[in-house]
Design a protein that fits this description.
By secondary structure, the chain is mainly α. It contains 6 helices and 4 strands, in the order ββαααβααβα.
Length: 155
């Protein structure tokens, strides 16, 4: 006897499973939250709690946001991290987590239709030319072996 849902499916981890439970066959085709690292989700929750404590829980849904404000906030956190500051001195949290919180608010506002898109007018494509220039530079200096410094060199 063959069941309606009895078939072999390949999961993202490569394992094959025999689907005999109708919930399995349907559930594996839904948004997979199990692929998101839960430690990151928990840290994002704490970063969002800090924002809720300062501005009000879900205030961004109630009043909306401007893209430029969240772009600026995200970039400040990413640049501070990139320049060697791991922890945001205002919150005591990782700059990466704070950037993620900014992006989460921004994306949620877009999804809810409460984001004011105040980006500048569209730019003409510039990356193809820059990528070509970068390739030329690398080819020109391909015979050199300079030391490339990292944050480890500042200790």
């Amino acid at each position: 006897m063959t069941f309606l849902y009895e078939r072999v499916e390949r999961r993202i981890d490569g394992a094959e499973t025999k689907q005999t439970n109708p919930k399995d066959a349907i559930g594996i085709r839904k948004a997979p939250l199990s692929v998101v690292p839960m430690g990151v989700v928990a840290e994002l929750g704490v970063a969002m709690l800090e924002g809720a404590s300062k501005y009000g829980r879900h205030n961004f849904r109630g009043v909306g946001v401007r893209s430029s404000v969240y772009f600026d906030a995200t970039m400040r956190h990413l640049i501070a991290y990139w320049e060697g500051e791991d922890i945001d001195p205002d919150s005591g949290m990782s700059h990466i987590a704070k950037a993620m919180a900014s992006l989460a608010v921004w994306r949620d506002a877009q999804m809810q239709g409460v984001c004011t898109d105040d980006r500048p007018p569209r730019s003409k494509p510039f990356y193809p030319g820059l990528n070509c220039a970068a390739g030329v530079i690398l080819d020109k200096h391909g015979d050199k072996s300079p030391k490339h410094y990292t944050i480890e060199d500042s200790k």
